[in-house]
Design goal:
The chain is α+β, with helices and mostly antiparallel strands. 33% of the residues lie in helices and 19% in strands. The chain folds into 2 domains: 85 residues, Winged helix-like DNA-binding domain superfamily/Winged helix DNA-binding domain (Arc Repressor Mutant, subunit A), CATH 1.10.10; 76 residues, Arc Repressor Mutant, subunit A (Orthogonal Bundle). The protein contains 6 helices and 9 strands, in the order βαααββαααββββββ. The longest helix is centred in the N-terminal third of the chain and has 14 residues.
């Protein structure tokens, strides 16, 4: 059975784990112009360190064409592509659906359609495209987590047969908050947890 490690993250606390943190560390190491290792990332990650999770993320980057193994020494890597947002990739390197959905929903919440407030049904409808389908249940879950963290403001409370209307707080950045393990709401723009949370990390 996997062992569950729990740790407290206070509101505004920096989350030193997860794909977003690993990616920020990799970008920082890349700026130095030197190859890096999973150990380099682990040394800059808060305890408890899940080396398996770090290795898995690096493998996804390699499969997705973001990184390549360095020819000079085994176990070292170099970045081929950089971007501000953390790459959301499946293990085979293809783009992850969940990351695309959250980006689409966040664009709606921050855009013109979201300024007067949207319901979860509105959010699913406006965020969906021909190539990306956002289900109402996914939109409702995302709104629920963001609302609990104080990222969204309730414009109109819900009633029977009339869902609540929500609007994003002013001044939020372009990167979508991500719901991490333990239901942490993580702001990619500031690198901090939003709202009081208890996180859990599973190690094999």
């Amino acid at each position: 059975m996997p062992r569950v490690l729990r740790f407290e993250v206070p509101p505004g606390g920096v989350v030193l784990r997860g794909h977003d943190h690993y990616w920020s560390v990799i970008l920082s190491l890349h700026q130095r112009g030197e190859p890096w290792t999973t150990t380099d990332i682990a040394h800059r990650t808060g305890a408890p360190v899940n080396r398996g999770a770090i290795g898995d993320f690096v493998s996804r980057l390699v499969a997705g064409g973001f990184a390549v193994a360095d020819e000079g020494e085994e176990g070292r890597y170099r970045l081929l592509r950089t971007q501000l947002a953390t790459p959301c990739l499946r293990r085979d390197g293809t783009p992850g659906e969940q990351g695309r959905q959250r980006m689409a929903m966040w664009n709606v919440l921050r855009g013109p359609m979201g300024r007067s407030g949207v319901t979860f049904r509105d959010l699913a409808l406006y965020a969906s495209t021909e190539s990306l389908k956002v289900k109402p249940v996914s939109a409702r879950a995302y709104i629920t987590h963001l609302a609990r963290a104080g990222v969204l403001h309730c414009v109109r409370k819900g009633k029977p047969n009339q869902p609540a209307l929500w609007r994003a707080r002013v001044g939020l950045g372009p990167l979508p908050p991500m719901i991490m393990k333990g239901h942490i709401v993580f702001d990619q723009n500031t690198g901090k947890a939003v709202g009081a949370v208890e996180a859990s990390e599973v190690q094999s």
